[in-house]
Design a protein that fits this description.
The protein contains 11 helices and 10 strands. By secondary structure, it is of the alpha/beta class. Helix 6 crosses helix 7. The two termini are about 30 Å apart.
Length: about 300
């Protein structure tokens, strides 16, 4: 039986983040994309939601170039085929105004989407026209919640002061966080411990946190992950990429399993009440098979009680 997204977020949620089809993809290739993704994900019973990113390139002024189809249209199609919840990401920084964001939220709800992740701009040095993420949470939250929906954000555990940012976004209405890609349990656990402590002092229940993990198979993947802004510790990179290239995917899976298990075990020892889940990311089209394999394996990990 498929549980509701709200119920999943109170326990150990499991998301999958695929690469969306390109903005101007040929109809036959787009249909093949939906068929293959649906076929592979249908066998993962523990999947709670498909988390659809909005992939954007920016010019030097911060103006966006959208590389993939609208996550909402992709989400509606996948929800109909998979019968799972969908979560759509929106980079709010590029919207021209708060009013435009509210209009987007109403259109999203009218189109049947009930869960969103609101994302900020990629550079702190660019004066984006759109609202901040916390402001966006306050604007969009009531619209989504009135329709039985939820608002989430991105957490970056590697960033100094992130637990305080997470508290501010929780105050503003964020019900869950998906993290930036992680390759280190220590930084994740430290952020979770600080975040829960801040929430308790402020009188807020901590939001669910989904650790984002992904398979990498070669140096090209590692460089792409760094381009996305994530950090791969040298030790983790050696553990995954040193050795036969054909075995890199398996080593990446084992490393991800260890990061997830160590974070959950540390949280259990600390007595944390933060619901911890997993969000498996497909880095590129060629990673679909191994990413779904990782999804299945890590879903079993979060379903098992964490060792103390």
């Amino acid at each position: 039986m498929v549980r509701s997204l709200a119920s999943a977020l109170r326990e150990a949620p499991v998301f999958f983040e695929p690469v969306p089809p390109t903005l101007r993809g040929r109809p036959d290739r787009v249909e093949a994309y939906y068929r293959e993704l649906t076929q592979r994900l249908a066998g993962v019973e523990a999947l709670d939601a498909v988390d659809l990113p909005e992939l954007i390139d920016e010019n030097h002024e911060g103006r966006p170039y959208y590389r993939t189809a609208d996550p909402r249209s992709v989400g509606r199609e996948l929800a109909e085929r998979l019968h799972r919840s969908v979560v759509v990401n929106k980079v709010v920084a590029h919207l021209p105004s708060a009013a435009a964001l509210e209009a987007w939220a109403r259109e999203t709800v009218a189109g049947g989407i009930r869960a969103v992740v609101l994302v900020g701009g990629s550079s702190r040095y660019i004066p984006y026209p759109g609202p901040s993420v916390a402001e966006a949470d306050r604007l969009v939250g009531p619209i989504l919640r009135a329709a039985g929906g939820l608002v989430g954000n991105i957490a970056i555990p590697q960033r100094e002061g992130e637990a305080h940012r997470m508290l501010a976004k929780t105050r503003a209405g964020a019900a869950f966080f998906t993290t930036q890609l992680l390759f280190d349990s220590g930084v994740a656990l430290a952020t979770l411990v600080e975040y829960e402590g801040l929430c308790r002092k402020a009188g807020f229940e901590p939001a669910a946190v989904l650790l984002s993990l992904a398979p990498i198979a070669d140096e090209t993947d590692a460089e792409f992950v760094r381009w996305l802004g994530a950090d791969i510790p040298e030790e983790a990179e050696r553990a995954i990429l040193n050795g036969e290239e054909s075995g890199a995917a398996g080593r990446a899976l084992e490393h991800a399993r260890r990061v997830l298990a160590e974070t959950r075990e540390g949280a259990a020892r600390a007595g944390l009440g933060v619901p911890i889940g997993v969000n498996v990311e497909q880095l590129t089209q060629r990673h679909l098979g191994v990413a779904v394999e990782m999804l299945s394996e890590l879903a079993r990990t979060v379903a098992a009680p964490a060792a103390r």
